[in-house]
User: Fold these one by one.
Assistant:
Number 1:
Amino acid sequence: MPPGVLRYAAFTADPATGNPAGIVLDATGMADSERQAIAAAVGYSETAFAEPLGDGEFALRYFSPAREVPFCGHATLATAVALAALHGAGRITFRTPVGEVVVTTTDGEGGVLARIDAPTGHSRPAAPEQLERLLAALRWSRDDLDESLPPHVANAGNDHFVLAAGTRERLAALAYDFDTLLRLMQDEDWITIQLVWMQAPDRYHSRNPFPVGGVVEDPATGAAAAAFGYYLHALGKVPASRTITIIQGEDMGRRSVIEVDVDEGPRVAVRGTAVRIDPR
């Protein structure tokens, strides 16, 4: 592990589960090439680089092993929890490439809880040709899909293709063509593919292929979870304020729990915990 990098697991209270993130709490003056090299050496789906600006504000950028990412929810949550461990819980404002993101941390029985007010987002139906290319890359067919949740491209800082599986078994049997999906996502500028299965109207299971970041799959994706909140609102699936629970990472052995609050407006927030991974 490069010196000066903290490791936190996000959307879990168990460091052996959740989505691990690297964190550099003071990257002031650090060149982009150095940040990219550190992210590649860390090897997590994202490493966050913070720059203190004063008065509880920080510039925050995110690098995957392969590229910079405009916004990352789990690394934002992990950074906020790491800062709370140093300075106490409270409100933090992050200046990110997609704009201002406010995170509120509070002390709870299970550790520090963080609530991310997601960037303003939207969701739109996917084009038929986009769906056909994605199905081919995933090695899925239209018969595998849940017709009640149509394919969309949803955004909460980044574009994510939302695709709903008709069964939990279809979601579990994920064996996609990495290179084909990578080319499609590069062509369309999608950050992840948000594959979901609806267990109940307020409970979903998710998997997130992330080949553009040089990662086969992400165990917890806060930005995609926020985008999914905008997706459900666009479909009229959230007639009033509702909390949606997303279970992600189970099929990878890194179970994560993401709470998504969706209010009329719409306004979306993502909540969860994070825990320090012991230095190695």
Number 2:
Amino acid sequence: MTGLRVELVSEHASPLVTVGLADAGGQNVHVAALARHLAALGCTVTVVTRADAPSLPRHVAMAPGVQVEHVTTGPRRPVPKDELWDYMPGFASQLRRRWRAARPDVVHAHFWMSGWAAERARRGMPDPPPLVQTFHALGAVKRRHQGRADTSPAERCGIEAELTRSVDHVVATCTDEVRELTALGGEADRITVVPCGVDPRAFRPSGPAAPARRGGYRIVVVSRLVPRKGIDDVVAALPSLPGTELLVAGGPPAHALAEDCEARRLLALARRLGVDDRVQLLGAVARPEVPALLRSADLVACVPWYEPFGIVALEAMACGVPVVGSAVGGLLDTVQHGRTGLLVPPRDPQVVAAAAARLLGNPSLCAHMGAEAAARVRQDYTWSQVARSTLDVYTRLMAGGRAGPSAARGWAVA
């Protein structure tokens, strides 16, 4: 089905924002790439997101067939996503006005607050658009791992459970998420797994590798600088990995790293362990520079406490670089243990060190795993494939009418 008018709602994750800054990560990449590739399939796509700067225009043409719509709700400045909840009724009101003026064929909400606002916006409409939900992360999982450090609004877990039952369909990004969603009350026949993807033109084994080596081995981490990403476990593994440097990309720009609490904590840990001369925090790295950084690595470490998907691991694999990843969430799907990388328990620096040593000490194994990883991504994880699978969800939903809690029995968890 072409000519479909699709509205992607992403309240805090703009597709135009630099990835690696606060609250800017995999969801921003996902929404931007999905929008572009849905448009390439013939859809007309609008991404609705919150205006977080006074100078932002109302409409931005992001790509052929894709427009970003900035909605003013709350202050026109950056606000941590966990503090946006109070502004969601206003966001919902603006969505309702939009859809009454021009109803989209399908709405795809990204993150729980977007889902709540979209569900509220279509309430009472005589012909509401069908609503698809992708959570990207679940509050129940975050609370399980972070405990009192979880700053999510108290309402989050309850709303996510309600959304699993009220939206027309849920698109999960990994099979582990299906288990979590069914525990919340979701029905498996109303959930479809569509993973995140990679742009194979940018993320590929051939191409420049930068920055230049100082000698020895190199591990790269690309991540927001937050404790749950487990970067400290990679730092703590370095004493067991002589001759190995660690490059960490993410967080604020390099000139502002000294003011970042997590950056200071990581550097202090490196000094205590005597490896500060082998740890380099790069700060935010522009998106076009990420493939070269990944290609410069012997291996990429992605060892968070929990991970809804783990797009960096997939991008590293696309570049032909093996991954040491935590055996959690989406990494269980993407990293094939012993074939495209090694899976390790989270929060265990000694096991991270052992896995890294196994790869670094065997260049032929690294090369073999890297080749397997790149082939796997080209076969199963390109954004064009993700967009086709997502469009299939939309068209099936529209063909069957608005799905209710007991509808869509023919759908399978794919």
